[in-house]
Amino acid sequence: MTETKKRPSRGGRAARVQARTNPAPVYLPTLNRAVGPIDLLGPDGVEKIHNAAMTILETTGIEFRDPVALADWKRAGADVEGERVRIGRDMLMDLISTVPSTYQYHARDPQKTVDVGGAHSIFANAYGAPFVYGLDGERRPSMLEDAHNFFKLGQMSQALHVPGVLPVEPQDVPVPHRHLELVHAALTLTDKPIKGSVLSATAARDTVEMTRIVFGEEFVDQNVVVTSLLNCNTPLVWDETMLESLRVYAAANQPCLLSPFVLAGASTPASPQGGVALLIAESLAGMAYSQIVRRGAPMVLGVAIMGVSMKTGAPMMGSPEPGLMNLLVGQMARFYDVPWRSCTMWTGSKSPDLQAGFDSANTMWPVLLGGCNFIVHSAGFLEGALGVSYSKWVHDSYQLEAFHRFFSGLKEESLDALLGDVAEIGPGGHFLGTDHTRENPLLINPLQNNDSYEQWVDEGAKNADMVGRDEAQRILHNYVQPPMDADTRGALDDFVAKKRLEYQT
Length: 505
Known about the structure:
Blueprint: H1 12-21, E1 31-32, H2 43-60, E2 62-65, H3 67-76, E3 79-81, E4 84-86, H4 89-96, E5 102-105, E6 114-117, E7 120-123, E8 131-133, E9 139-141, H5 144-156, H6 178-189, E10 194-196, H7 201-215, H8 217-222, E11 226-232, E12 237-239, H9 240-251, E13 256-264, H10 272-293, E14 300-302, E15 304-308, E16 315-316, H11 320-336, E17 340-343, H12 354-369, E18 374-376, E19 381-382, E20 387-389, H13 390-407, H14 415-425, H15 435-439, H16 453-458, H17 464-477, H18 486-504
Parallel strand pairs: 2-12, 7-18, 8-20, 10-11, 11-13, 13-14, 13-15, 14-17, 17-18
Antiparallel strand pairs: 1-7, 2-4, 3-4, 5-6, 8-9, 15-16, 19-20
Helix pairs in contact: 2-10, 4-10, 5-6, 6-7, 6-18, 7-9, 9-10, 10-11, 11-12, 13-17
């Protein structure tokens, strides 16, 4: 009797279905913008805002509420009176002249390393919300498991370049070692570029030490592996906690997003030009100080711009004035030849609804048209940045793919072959079956529903929130943790365990 040979298994039908319905991510590179930027100001307008910012720093001055920073400024030759520092324009321009116009932002996986500055743009996750809108749609305090889940979603996203270090504030982790859990998770659950903790100087030092374990001390000293977010207290105050963290990161050659938090009409003048002059002065002062700490350390001019409702005083996203301000900030950053950061895809809405959609779109378009390099809060925010929604996170993530495609611009193509298709098909035909159509499909957002009403009803009549939650669950179910060398992982785990004990005593 002859034994029948079995054909080697390739996983069977179930595996093929799984591969079709849950394909591995195809990661998008740094966005190299081929559309824009828009310059609203002529040379005279740029000079007007520059002179206003310099006048603010020279005459009004800015408070550095930190004794070390005050001593540093005094040694550098600034006019220091109490906590008020007045910086001459020649000194300031000399200091920021050594800030690199671009830098490479390294990931554990070199294929996911990105570029910041110039015509490059990258998307980073939401940051710091105390609440989540969960997989069940309910609002509740955020937990460490949620932070882990958003790192996983960030790892699986094709368009999100930086999963961040603080997608939500885990309320179940004590503050003294919260940064340890978050940086450890960012480094192990993702292999994309990460952001650093600025909770304290200790948290900043621990972040740098953990990156040295993963990347190597010499590599970290010469390359960017982490970028951290520091907020100025607008108007005109840099506080001690932020400055302590800035010194740690600048000394380690790691950039910070030096970002005034602007409530236009409240913490800054309501007019776009006046508000931009103030925030430019604030951010440049922080950038200049970083160069006193270490000349040549990369830094990013940062802004976080919201309007204020004149009806309630609440923050307001998606209004036109912050959009105009972002266009102006982009033009000023190009004047100073430094990278810049802004915020997008946020909303005052409490669900992933129509308002959330138009608020998010209205914040993203001017930021990208303004040529922004480092775009924070690109996925998930609701409730004026107080909450992150699993559902909105995945909706936003797919929207980022569309923005990436649009701002990548036109592709090179020959029209001769297309003219041949037109001649062959002729009047009344269609192009669905042509080679060109198959090779150049339009981008499809898998969460958009373009089916008939009857089919939509048959499939559950799901609204945007329900569709997004289903998709978040699917992505989390298919998450694959990126590998890490066993010795490196062991050293990282040991460092965190040791520090946990140290901060508990």
